[in-house]
Amino acid sequence: MKVVHSPLHARHDGGKELHRGELVPCFEMPSRADFILQALRREGFAVGGPREFPLESLLRVHDAGFVEFLRTAHAEWRAVGKEGFMLPSGFPARSLRRDHIPAGINGKMGYYAFDASTPIVEGTWDAALAAAHCALTAAAHVVEGERGAYALCRPPGHHAGHAVYGGYCFLNNAALAAQYLRDHGKKRVAVLDVDYHHGNGTQDIFWERSDVLFVSIHGTPETEYPYFLGYADERGAGEGEGYTRNFPLPRGTAWAEYVTALDAALDTVGGFAPDALVVSLGVDTYEGDPISAFKLETRHYPLMGERLARLGIPTVFVQEGGYAVEDLGSNVAGVLKGFLARG
Amino acid sequence: MKVVHSPLHARHDGGKELHRGELVPCFEMPSRADFILQALRREGFAVGGPREFPLESLLRVHDAGFVEFLRTAHAEWRAVGKEGFMLPSGFPARSLRRDHIPAGINGKMGYYAFDASTPIVEGTWDAALAAAHCALTAAAHVVEGERGAYALCRPPGHHAGHAVYGGYCFLNNAALAAQYLRDHGKKRVAVLDVDYHHGNGTQDIFWERSDVLFVSIHGTPETEYPYFLGYADERGAGEGEGYTRNFPLPRGTAWAEYVTALDAALDTVGGFAPDALVVSLGVDTYEGDPISAFKLETRHYPLMGERLARLGIPTVFVQEGGYAVEDLGSNVAGVLKGFLARG
Ligand SMILES: [Zn+2]
Ligand SMILES: [Zn+2]
I want to staple A196 with a disulfide (CB 3.0 to 4.6 A). Which of A182, A292, B116, B319 is the partner? Predict the structure, then answer.
């Protein structure tokens, strides 16, 4: 299986987030990608760089003003004399307007964001764009006949919506891959999101569409980030009614219960009979993850990969979360090897 | 003029906010109230404590679930093993649901908040409740015949809406005072907000009412906090259509231009012919304010007070912002003395 990786991910570095009353370097840190890359190389995977894609590829799933904001945000920040990482100080939350984009950079940043844990640094755009290109390249490999391909995306993408960023995500790599598959002959595409956190951005993007099925298994938003999307009663709207399916699970869920939800999710995917599958592959379901609360063990990831392979659908794997840095590699490699083992 | 003050304000202390990439103690700090109190004592104002009011007084302008959240939030935070100050990590901003309150404390906090600069500490509820009682007591003084009364409220209140907190504000002291006046014989009440920042919370509370006029002069939300409310096209809705008026002004506004907006605002208030007036008295319009950008000088605050007195309406002053700590006292005293000078 081809692995697509760009060293540009490392430019997204130096931001901090608030954790237990202290400002700490983001859990979403460059070494995450390094550990995954090392493990995949050790396992013999062939690693290649991304191709280039026109900016218009991004506009297939994202708002043009939003993309322009991401592209220019840090330059605008520096232009008004600020430095370091950018975090918004106010949001269009309850009781506030959402119909006007403020002119100043602070207000604009709040308009496009939904949390204060997703810093933008000088290199964020370069890294996010490279991650998007990795996902598009992996999708291209599958269009060109590969059974599976893996995009080592960093920053991750599944929290980024049509015109919002947050949850360490800027551009929605998985949604871009799914749209690329749609635009290149795949009539029906499913996205299965197995990250610990709900893929609110992907759901937002495909909410009213019936050509892309979105299925997510995640920690319940009653207690887990992103709190305001990912409940079981969300099933899509309009044309998309019935094409969004959420499987929220309680904190502490271990493999025995997880696999029941996974099998139900896979049945849903199978029932849709997609021509291609995108897996939003977060491994923060791991018992050692510092910010999540499922109890999957390293030995379970190959089992997940096998089950995915049983669907028999060409599959693009897109890296999402996972913060137990030193164990990321084995868990990701486990899924991919499990997938390949089932020929 | 009677001054109402409670030492309980000091219990709201120890929180931090993000400022230029560093976590710093909140600009809204206990010494603010100490400096104001000192200056007013020096000027010979009589200082008294607040009366007690039943919890139901708060529910005249706030949502019951919101008040219960504020009352129990820090205990709930400690109950799940956390300590220190609470800041939310995700908000129901654009693309997310606002119709469900998450069960866990992190999600619930994000649901009720609209920024990540308003920490809740163990003593926040005691302080916010005492500030509300100060405002209600000052309103009672006016109901009982005083021409003017001043509530030294801390934390401030004008950013707190019917069911949201933010901008250093938890309970809306000015709205509570206005409602108290309405409930005790004053048929028409005006709120004039002269804080540097738009009083989004007060506007939210009275948006659909014609018995309380809300008028605000403030830094334009195009560039200034709270960014998502306070534009000139916001004029109320339903019954309240025409009873909200905003005067946004650009950064750098000095007295010469400020006074034009002030006079227009006073004309609007006068035209409403209210039986009582509440002034949301922020003095962060001061040239020395560290987080604001108007250019009013200490000598202008008595002029503001005189102009307010010219209306000839019984007036409750409620302290809002102002962060140039050592100059707060003279600026606040200036307004009150200017008001009293015009007999
Ligand atoms: Zn995650
Ligand atoms: Zn203010």
Answer: A292
